[in-house]
Amino acid sequence: MNIEKSWQLEINQETMHLPEIQVHKEKGAILLSILLKGYTSDWGEHDHRLSNDVETFFKQNPLDEKSIKFLEKIQTLQDNGVDEEVLYNIALTYKHPERQRALFDFIKKHKDYINNPQELHDNLLDILKQLENNLPSELQESFNKATDDDIEKRNQILPEVKEKIKSLIDFFKPSRYNTQVSRMTILPTDFLYHKESGTLFQFGDEIMIRSHIDNPDNLEHEFLHSVINPIVDKLAEKLSEEKKQKISRIGSYKLRVEENYGNGFYSLLCEEFIRTYNDVLQKNENPVTYEDFVKKINVHLDENAFARGFQRNTLFRKRCEELNIKKLQDLQDNSRKYFDTFEHNELRIIIFNFYKKYIQEKKKEQSELKKMYRDALSVSGEYQEVLEELEALKLRKKKIEAGIQSDFKEEFDKLEGLKLNIAGDNQMLSDIALTQLTSGETVKIVDENKTEYEPIFTVKFKKV
């Protein structure tokens, strides 16, 4: 059976409702970031002043031996150790014991390599409590000030965020039985954490999203995990081991290797579903083909641009070195090998085609519903009577208007003349503005209130 045929979205007519959305700070998550920054100053972001403040504090007050041994023991920042996601899930139970049950269910389901989650939980929370007690009040106040400012900014754009979340729900129509989310908490920006990264946490029917305020797309990306992950859970039940292995093989090199998602089919599938929607579908584009790639390097890339990319882009340089590519001509000569190795994304193509079919089905359903509505109106006697009354009122309205216009013929003739004059003036202004703009001049006009206006040009097309 074709793998694509097994991927049918689990859509229930009872779509989830827009969750209650709020912005709320969590002390435990911030304390964990401070702890990780204290353990190694290279961790996380370095641009924000809070990062410098924390680094300065730990230079003068190094982490205690208990905290260091704890972090060394679980190998927080090493391969195959307890990952950051687990630690942050635990940290979010700091002063929130009601979340512990959901935490341990999460670890049992997704992190079963952890042998003693209760011990890990207790030890980390003890260390966070000790850290909070040892932090100077000035540093805590700095964090509170930055956090409160971030919350204020986020609350200002909250209506816009709600609209975006609603549009995602309207598109995917997740079942309220599969996506059990009634509350969504947006965490304030963690200025110590990686700016380009985000995380979704879930405790019962509440999801928490961590994303940087300057990276709004990431917030939508993380919300989509609450929609896509349950769908992939359902899909996984229908996939044979052979198909799961195929997904692992056809996942992009970028996800599998460069972003360390590995070969697990579940993570690759969830992430590619979301990225294909955000990076391709939302931009009304198609997955990149070999022809697209060749055009890009032959038309849009010269030797200087190649040299800059090779020097500044670590990832691009690493790819080129792997294929012994040292100049633009080498890249052009090895374009097929480069594309097949690093750019080709078969999984994205399959998911993109899946989305296209899904959209076509939605349009077909929409068309059928509209037809049902029109048919129902056409057989409604009451509706037909209202239409006839409305038509009679329109004729009566026109008759009244014609009578009044006849009584004010001179005034209406003057009005028509003014309309023609204004239209002519507007056309003249447009011609002048277009002439100045094509000559490279700055174009603006100022009214009697000293308000400045700049021109806006539009192009319309008609059938020929």
Please provide a written account of the structure.
The chain is mainly α. Helix content is 64%, strand content 5%. The protein has 20 helices and six strands. It has helices spanning 27-39, 49-60, 65-74, 84-91, 100-110, 117-134, 137-156, 158-172, 216-238, 241-250, 253-258, 265-281, 290-299, 303-312, 314-322, 328-333, 335-343, 346-378, 381-407, 409-438; strands at residues 20-23, 183-187, 199-203, 206-210, 445-446, 452-453. The strands form two sheets. The protein has a four-stranded mixed sheet. Helix 9 crosses helix 12 (265-281), helix 12 (265-281) crosses helix 18 (346-378) and helix 14 packs across helix 15. The longest helix is centred in the last third of the chain and has 33 residues, at 346-378. The mean pLDDT is 88.
Helix and strand arrangement:
Blueprint: E1 20-23, H1 27-39, H2 49-60, H3 65-74, H4 84-91, H5 100-110, H6 117-134, H7 137-156, H8 158-172, E2 183-187, E3 199-203, E4 206-210, H9 216-238, H10 241-250, H11 253-258, H12 265-281, H13 290-299, H14 303-312, H15 314-322, H16 328-333, H17 335-343, H18 346-378, H19 381-407, H20 409-438, E5 445-446, E6 452-453
Helix pairs in contact: 1-4, 1-6, 8-9, 9-12, 10-12, 12-18, 14-15
